[in-house]
Specification:
The protein has a domain at 24-85. The chain has four helices and no strands. The chain has helices at residues 15-20, 23-39, 46-51, 54-86.
């Protein structure tokens, strides 16, 4: 049995739950998912990745690219929040 949960939290039950999550929590989840996904593509699992065929490899890389793009957008949201909170109040 695995000693830890790979993706951290369970998938939200509905879209409304996702909108209630903080951007930092969503970012953490996306990065955990990306890390787990990419761990299937190198090291001990690289033989599996090589053997699944070009179409599946492309789909996995497409998922990874989507997760990375989501993480980039969420990081911008968080940076704007930090900048706004650090501005002096008038």
């Amino acid at each position: 049995m695995a000693d830890r949960i790979i993706a951290g939290q369970h998938t939200p039950a509905s879209d409304d739950v996702t909108h209630q999550q903080d951007a930092s929590d969503i970012l953490e989840n996306k990065l955990s998912q990306l890390q787990s996904l990419l761990s299937c593509c190198y090291g001990d699992c690289s033989e599996w990745f090589d053997s699944i065929g070009g179409r599946h490899r492309d789909n996995i890389m497409w998922i990874a690219a989507d997760l990375a793009a989501d993480a980039a957008l969420l990081s911008q949201v968080l940076l704007k929040r930090v900048e706004a909170e650090s501005r002096p109040k008038a």
